[in-house]
Amino acid sequence: MSGCPVCIEVNGRAVSATLEPRTLLVDFLREHAGAESVRIGCEEGACGACTVELDGRTVKACLVLAVRADGGRVTTVEGLGEGRALDPLQEAFIGSHALQCGYCTAGMVMSARDFLARRGDDDFDDDDIRQALSGNLCRCTGYNHIIHAVKVAAGRAAPYTSPAQATPDDDDWVGKPIARREDRRIVAGRGRYADNAGSGTDLHACAARATRAHARIVAIDTRRAKAMPGVHLVLTGAEARTHWTPISPTMDLLDLKLPRRYALATDKVVFYGEPLALVVADTPYQAEDAARAVEVEYAELPPMVDAAEAAQATGEALLYPEWGSNLQVEFALDHGDVDGAFAAADLVVDEHIDSHRFGAMPLETRVARAAWDPAEERLTVHTSSQVPHQTRLYLARVFGIPETRIQVIAGDVGGAFGAKLSVDCEFLPVLGSLLTGRAVRWFEPRSAWMHAGYAARDYRTRSRAAFARDGTLLAMETDILADMGCDGAERACGLGMPLNGGTYAPGPYRLQHYRTRVRCVVTNKAPYNAYRGYGKDLANMLMERVLDRAADRLELDPLAIRERNLLTGYPHQLVTGPVIENGSVAESLAELARVMDLPRLRAEQAAALAEGRHLGICLVPYIEPSGPAFPGSAFQNYESVTLRIAADGSVHVLTGIQSIGQGIETSYAQAAADLLGADLADVSVSWGDTTATPWGSGTFGSRGVQFAIGALQDAAQKLRRRLLIAAAVLLEAREDDIVLKNGRARDRASGREVGFADIAYGVYVNPGAEVLLDSADAPLLEAHGTYRHAAVNWKGDAEGRPQFYPAHANGAEGAVVEVDIETGRVEVNKIWIVADHGRVLNPLLMKGQIRGGVVQQLGGTLYEHLAYDEHGLPLQKTLKEYGMPTVWAAPEIEVHHLETRSPATAIGAKGGGEDGCIATSTVLLGAVEDALRPLGVTVTSSPLSPARIRAMVEAARGRTA
Amino acid sequence: MRPAPFALHRPATLADALAAIAAGALPLAGGQSLLPAMRLRDTEPEALVDLSGIDALDADIRIVDDRVHIGARVTHAALAADTALQAGLPWLTDAAAQIGDVQVRNLGTVLGNVCWADPRANLAVALLASDAAVIAAGADETHSAIPLDAFFTGFRRHALDGRLAVALELPRAPGARGCYLEFSRQRQDLALVNVCAVTDANGLRIAVGGIDPTPVRLHAVERDGAGALETALAPARHRPIADQHGDAAYKLHLADVLVRRALTAIGIAA
After folding, report:
1. Does B31 touch chain A (CB under 8 A)?
2. What residues are paired with A334 via a beta bridge?
3. A158, A371, A602, A607 - which has most CB atoms within 10 Å?
4. Which residue of B has its CA nearest to A943?
5. What structural domains does chain A harbor?
């Protein structure tokens, strides 16, 4: 089959290879031409991450056979710009903060470039840009900043960033919209994603996967697969058992149950797509061929597809018979006199609110390259992870290799959002490498993620709430049933989301009587993992929809009923335990109403209705608990930073927090520069390598601005002290008179200065630390800083209530939608957010986080769906079927900030990575209901798909007819 | 995933292409529908015949004596940008402009879109309403015209039967008005239902995609007007694609809404 000679000019260089006819251009470019900017995010040509120019036209390199490009000319993003200078369009992407994880960026730039070239000097509007970029998906930015970047490149808009220049003594680097440092490599196509690790001699892994949702494995025949060309290894789950232990659990808290599964199923399968056998071959093509040749005989077991049914199931319908039920955990809280308050109520509302199943869906699927060196007995794993240190821990446990012999490297991560906090399939290439002694790469196909990747949301709830006639909320009771799929704690960690939903449902309201029951039930679906929002979305939904319903029934203004019940002072302890340390919930909601110009919107709504158009408006407040520390998990109340000043005065921050597109290389440098008095240009930040960085819990729950900055502050205080001692010697000054700023130590008394470079050379070389740091605590310019948040409390307060989230940002979100009642289509016209994250490290990055989160949750609410049939077979295997939001889905998102500083750190920032995912579903359900209020429609579940909206309209008409 | 292995024929002549097809090879034009299906391993052809090297297949859009010729290598991008078609048959260029995205339109061909024969394919529906015919070359290199009314034989099945589609031909009736509309979850997504209505001196033609295994004409509505829509779209008469994005009733309802909107757009009472 092999043997087509191909020669393609790639970025001006002729590249020749002999290829199988089936070789895709994307593989040729990546493996033969070194064009590693060209990325794979899907299989159906939806994502556009592989967009290149071929003979003057943009194409998707994954939908072109390389042999058909023979003799052609390809330009990738690596071929843009002159020498080391970037193209103005690439500069515009940086200046507009048009990228976060950067996985889509190279393709996006190629499409934008094509658009600008074709437009020339012609006029264009935002929809023309959308038309040009609709073949390129971005999961991070919410597209707003990308559209802006195109306008900047065309000279029609100004960039958002301000230049990073030295600041006066009374000014700070923190708080400035400084362009990201990570962007320069990413826009140039040199992002360090896990799939760029490796060499041409690597082997490739592929999993043979279950084609049943629930079945016993009767027999697996691997003979045909083993005989196929290029195959090095085919191993079933039963055969693999002696080489590893079950998956090391991500969470093991409360009294939850663990499935104790291996990374390859051994005796039964519990979800469609579960890995059954590992195949290792010379090429990914051959590995896929052989994986499909693995023959499996199943004995069907009853598939559990419905969580309510699964909760009652017995016998063969139990996923894990040893549990005795399908309940992974049941959790209950009961505070105050709930029944008494209900008995005294004027109004009781009783609402069922449900969410469908959707999830993180990063553009980069799961990736790992494992290289076991048998001679050195060392394992090096490149993987896409939010938690490289925990990954090393899990690898050590599962394979029995000392942690000191394992290096995990997580470079740039192509999107995570909670879905890269655990390890399951990543064990497979490691096993492959251990058994073959060769480096083995594994890149998860999108369809495999779609079937076996992580889901979230998917809850059914009932909320009862008691109100007085004036709208005062007297008591509330919530009952949450969440569908974990096959597992929410071991190979994934989504189980905490419904628990958070139950715990935080009282939200920012004065509620003293509250009861909740949360049941997490396993079914025969893919695992349930953390997803941005982590149950704070559910909490928000339960309370806010109940308040809207009560407002309707009591004929109160929706804002008025909230104002009546919002907390009035801080700190405020929720009846369930969490303490909201400070904030501005009421002010955020009031400010939101002001910036939205609510009276104007209501007038527009009335005018539209007179024309038969249905506009809807909704505003809700939210709180954003951040920085979680969970017992019985690797998500601890601890972080550390190593801070080092080199002999040339440059400052190096090493952190165990992982970069997943949130911009820590920039924002932590800003913080370090301020805390140390360094020049921003001299500070660099390293992460993602377990050998180079100190232990860290990684990135989740918007914890970095508390935990990493707290650790940085601790380290910086140690180094500041030593810098002052050394500078005092050099300047013959008093330490108290020395100011550290912009990389210089200045003696206020004499006005004399010395730079960090001179101090550092002085310490390291001449006259040496014995002279300059003789009176210091340690004779070096390197310090380890640690942080433990004082507000975390696992022991519980007097009533036994623990505190897992030490900080609480807050805000308010509003939306205007239009619903076409004939087709059922919902168009989101605009979203507004007023957010309070204390002191914001970099307001541009913060806006990017918020806008991106909004579009993620908007996509989930309107389009995305992980649906299953009655046999537990997934109904989608492509991004289009799933419903990933495109550039057309992204409305304008206006963001405003309030500032209530966190008392926890000197900088005063609170976590802010999840805003957009917390209240967006709530406001969209509320706004659609508001739009359809004239028809008598109530909206209590998602997705808000056209077919479902139409059904709601029809049902309401049926009731009124 | 990646495609299963296949043999690739790269003929220079129609005769060689037809010989390969006779031996079971599948024609590969722009590949923008076929390659995704092969990557997902939904289809695993043993051989493909690459049409890109056949000189006899042209990339021309010609209007001669009120007949429009669209060559086999005309891409969606080329069709959408053709100024003569924009002026005379704008519903066709609208339909082409809403296919996929820029990258897909740059490679995907009009004839490939028709021969993919998905009932929701934009151009299948728009061309069916435009009274188009596929020009097919047979084994003896004789050319025959297959009207689109007879071309679609099932879900992604067509009447070529070993012949190779080499062009499309359709009338350009003076004074024709037409409207192509599609409903997809997000703009430019695969249509759930799409509709094209064209009226000219020969009468009204309405084509609908997504409500049957093939694109269909609504002859009763063409004859009797919108009043016949309810009967024409009766559930018993159609087999809509029912999926997680909408059941059969919803698809038929969408067809009703879109047909009315298209008729209104071309000035016919709906």
Report:
1. yes
2. A515
3. A371
4. B245
5. 4-79 (3.10.20.30), 88-191 (1.10.150.120), 566-632+802-961 (3.30.365.10), 639-787 (3.30.365.10)
pLDDT at B117: 96
**Complex ipTM > 0.95:** yes
Q: Is the pLDDT of residue A167 over 80?
A: no
Give the residue-averaged pLDDT of A798-814.
Answer: 94
| pLDDT score for A1 | 46
Q: Do A945 and B8 touch (CB under 8 A)?
A: no
What's residue A171's pLDDT?
85
CB neighbours of A766 closer than 8 A, spacing ≥ 6?
none
Here the tokens at position A325 are 């039920």
- Is A883 in Cβ contact with B185 (below 8 Å)? yes
Q: Do B254 and A823 touch (CB under 8 A)?
A: yes
> Looking at chain B from residue 145 to 204, which residues have their Cβ under 8 Å from any Cβ of chain A?
183, 185-190, 192
Contacts of A767 (CB under 8 A, 6+ apart): none
B244 touches chain A (CB under 8 A): yes
Both tokens assigned to A808: 């609480």
- Rounded mean pLDDT of chain A? 96
B53 Cβ under 8 Å from any chain A Cβ: no
Q: Does B3 contact chain A (CB < 8 Å)?
A: yes
Token output for B132: 């188009």
| A661 Cβ contact partners less than 8 Å away, ≥ 6 residues apart | A99, A100, A101, A102, A140, A412, A413, A415, A416
The pLDDT of residue B27 is above 50: yes
Domains annotated for chain B, with CATH where assigned, are 7-51 (3.30.43.10), 61-171 (3.30.465.10), 178-265 (3.30.390.50)
At residue B107, φ and ψ (nearest 5 deg) are: -110, -35
The predicted structure's pLDDT at residue A396 = 98
pLDDT digits (tens, 9 = 90+) for A202-230: 999 999 999 999 999 999 999 999 999 99
